[in-house]
Amino acid sequence: MKTNTRIDALVPWRPDFFERSPLFAPLRPLVERFATYEDWPGLGDFQQLLDERAEPLRTLHGAPLKIVPQEGRPDHFEQHYAPRIYLSGEIQTRTRNWHDFFQLLSWFLFPRTKAVINAIHIPLAKQRLTKGEDIGRRTPVENMLSLFDEGGAVLVTGDPSLLELVREFRWKELFWQRRDDLVHKFDCVVFGHAMYEKALAPYLGMTANTIMLEGDGDYFASDREGRLAWIDAKLAAIFEAGEPYQKPRDLQPFPILGMPGWDPANSDENYYDNTDYFRPGRRRG
């Protein structure tokens, strides 16, 4: 395993990146088109992805998403990254950049939730600016949303006992003793674009900040598109309601490389004895 270093410097364009781990499975239908690209897609290619949709992706303000180059330091509120997306739909995107690439793709996977998260930030950030405060000094809710947006994942199962093992940090029991149940009754879906970026050069220590959902048989009978739509609707409703996720510690830590097959080394039982990664727990509160 590599240590966590700057991904953009470490990993050049890899057209087959989505074949390297089951973690990338949700992205595959979107990115297979780039499998023949010998070098990075351009911003025009990303815009074409948006243009090909029958229904445009939109912010809650109603603006259709569009790709624009990254610009300099903003000189008023509307030019900041999140407000600009909300008001005009313009996503400032760097070229040859994995982080921004996965940021765009996450809007395709979870359009409702991404729009809700974006909208929640706007009045809170504007309030800080109006009061003359640091626009980047976020509230606990904003910090939680940012943490999930960057490094989040969703855990879905119809078996509450599996979720209880996650809550209690009983990792070896979950990942090894209940391995067959994880394959057939448990879905881990990455949400955060930074987590996808980290998966290009995975390292022991990769931990997702998760929301756990109970899905019935209809969920597991659905195809990937149906599952993503179900998750998107659930997450959007949760964040709109504002409960129970109010601060970063409300998200459940999850050592994501423990998922069967998500690290080739985890086919060995001893893999799960590494308590530096599979930590025994944390204090609540």
Features:
285 residues; 2 domains; 42% helix; 11% strand
Please tell me about this protein's structure:
- The protein folds into 2 domains: 16-145, no CATH class; 148-273, no CATH class.
- It starts with 6 loop residues before the first helix and ends in a 30-residue tail after the last strand.
- It is α/β, with parallel strands linked by helices.
- 42% of the residues lie in helices and 11% in strands.
- The protein has a 4-stranded mixed beta sheet, sandwiched between helices. A two-stranded parallel ribbon has the order 1-2.
- Residues 1-5 have low confidence and may be disordered.
- The radius of gyration is 19 Å and the shape is globular.
What's the layout of helices and strands?
Elements: H1 7-10, H2 28-31, H3 43-51, E1 66-69, H4 81-88, E2 90-93, H5 98-109, H6 111-130, H7 140-151, E3 152-157, H8 160-167, H9 171-177, H10 179-185, E4 186-190, H11 193-198, E5 207-214, H12 217-221, H13 224-241, E6 252-255
Parallel strand pairs: 1-2, 3-5
Antiparallel strand pairs: 3-4, 5-6
Helix pairs in contact: 4-6, 5-6, 6-7, 6-13
